[in-house]
Amino acid sequence: MAASRFVRSVWTSFIEAGGLEGKLLQNLQITSVEPGRVRFKLDIEKHHTNRLGMLHGGTIATLVDLGGSLAIASRGFHATGVSTDLSVTYINSGGTVGQTVRAETICEKYGKSMAFTSITFHNEADELVARGSHTKYIRGAWNDPRNIVEEVSK
């Protein structure tokens, strides 16, 4: 199974679980996948914004969390671990309703216990909106029978 198809299946499992991601980010579109790297975009809707009508920092933080998970999935992990650290630096406005924010997330390193990811966001003017990092504990994720780590690493 290609990394792209696998990551899309992991994203579908997030939506089907009925949690925050499925409610807040249902219109997220994965635009490209390669082992260790995922790009996606989100068309900004009213529920993604703050009281000033701009993309909410909490939406971006949720995207950092999800993006880290998808980057780990691109390495072949179906279970993507649990968060140990998440950081966001906000730089510019992400946009308003009707605009699109784009993201690129990278799984920089993973081992037996930990995975380290980073993410950048750009608005429609191609300005850097935010950057984030996400660290996850993945020891238990290695045991998921749905993993394709060996297949993706080839």
TrEMBL record:
<keyword id="KW-0378">Hydrolase</keyword>
<dbReference type="InterPro" id="IPR029069">
    <property type="entry name" value="HotDog_dom_sf"/>
</dbReference>
<dbReference type="InterPro" id="IPR039298">
    <property type="entry name" value="ACOT13"/>
</dbReference>
<feature type="domain" description="Thioesterase">
    <location>
        <begin position="53"/>
        <end position="129"/>
    </location>
</feature>
<dbReference type="Pfam" id="PF03061">
    <property type="entry name" value="4HBT"/>
</dbReference>
<dbReference type="GO" id="GO:0047617">
    <property type="term" value="F:fatty acyl-CoA hydrolase activity"/>
</dbReference>
<comment type="similarity">
    <text>Belongs to the thioesterase PaaI family.</text>
</comment>
<dbReference type="InterPro" id="IPR006683">
    <property type="entry name" value="Thioestr_dom"/>
</dbReference>
<protein>
    <submittedName>
        <fullName>Putative PaaI_thioesterase family protein</fullName>
    </submittedName>
</protein>
<dbReference type="InterPro" id="IPR003736">
    <property type="entry name" value="PAAI_dom"/>
</dbReference>
